[in-house]
Amino acid sequence: MAKKKDTEKPAESTEDVKKEKVNEPTPLEQAQALAEDYKRKWYSVSAEYDNYRKRNAAAVSKAYAEGAAEALLKLLPVADNFSYALDSASDEKTKAGIDKVIKSFNTILASLGFEEITVNAGDAFDETVMEAVFNYPCEEGVEPNTVKQVLKKGYKTKEGKVVRFAQVAVNG
User: Fold this and answer.
1) Residue 65, Cβ neighbours under 10 Å: how many?
2) Distance between CA atoms of 155 and 123, rounded to whole angstroms?
3) Do 154 and 164 form a contact (C-beta atoms < 8 A)?
4) Contact 78, 102 (CB under 8 A)
């Protein structure tokens, strides 16, 4: 009689083979698991793309706003000069012409989303929208920290971000 080698495995019973097959996923279950995995990946990529699109739109909007504000800052000295010219004009026709130019400039600013900061002599000084350029000694009967004179107009966006602070002279 031939001896069995120690390395040989005993023959598996049919019950063991059936148990192994029960634990193996069927082709349908494999396909469903694969489909679920693809679905999860698709949701992930879709959400990532949506976030990218929102970030990109916000960046473009911010860049546009910053570019418009920079262009406005370069044009404001011209508007200031028109205001000075209006104050020093002697005849009414010249004043009317300069006033039309100023009004059209303000209309363009409004269409771009900018507005003038309203400051008048006698207003309380507000450091959030004003810059004190001169400080005069406080006269008798005048409240301290009030605007004595507006030197340059200030401008802000419609959202409230100051593009240029109003330059004013203040009573001490």
Assistant:
1) 16
2) 17
3) yes
4) no
Return the closest-CA partner of residue 84 out of 74, 94, 71.
94
- The answer to whether the CB of 89 falls within 8 A of the CB of 95 is yes
> Per residue in 144-162, pLDDT tens?
889 999 999 999 998 899 9
Confidence at residue 48, expressed as pLDDT on a 0 to 100 scale: 95
pTM above 0.70, yes or no: no
Q: Is 24 exposed, middle or buried (0-12, 13-18, 19+ CB in 10 A)?
A: exposed
At residue 162, the pLDDT reads 94
**Which domains are seen in the chain, by residue range?**
115-172 (2.30.22.10)
**In the chain, % of residues over pLDDT 90:** 70
Calculate mean pLDDT across residues 60-75. 92
What is the spatial order of strands in the sheet that 162-164 belongs to?
Answer: 114-117, 154-157, 162-164
Q: Around 63, how many Cα atoms within 13 Å sit in the side-chain half-sphere?
A: 6
164 pLDDT higher than 80? yes
